[in-house]
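Give me the 3D structure for Peptide deformylase.
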Amino acid sequence: MPTSILVEKKKLAKPPLDIHYLGDRVLRQPAKRIASVDEEIRRIIVAMLQTMYSADGIGLAAPQVGINKQLIVIDCELDKPEAPPVILINPTIKKYGKALAKDQEGCLSIPGVYLDVERPETLELAYRDESGRPRTLKADGLLARAIQHEMDHLNGVLFVDRVENELALTEELKKKGFSFQHVQHIAQGA
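Predicted structure for Peptide deformylase (190 residues):
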């Protein structure tokens, strides 16, 4: 569903929000549902989009910028200025597809670290849009992966918690100056 919130897809010298990094406790807190979608929420959405584009990201969850709300912005088409972002408020996954796929993920909260994560290839989602209207969405491929990755943030989970190759994980984190002690492993399928 096209959004009415459009932000130019460009880097800003000073993005409006600061991204928090692995090790920051704010990333481990479950996000709170948004009671009403108002102008303040729409201002946060614009600031999140500007921050995401400035960091060359395709997804950003509110907890990553220190906002404890169930709010996600995603744009898998950074090279298409006319393609609108996906804005998800209070998202809930209704159904996962049976097929799993392993692919590389990265995260704005763990810059420079890219590792394989296995996730369902497809999903069905219920959410509210930037006007507060209930919506549903079927997603596959990169969008489905991005939605799952960002929804993990709403539950205090980071993609590194799902990485199975512990040796590669430890080496990559160390190379980029992050500590393995901040990883909270999750059993596959959780």
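The helical segments are 39-54, 141-154, 166-175. Let me know if you want a second pass.
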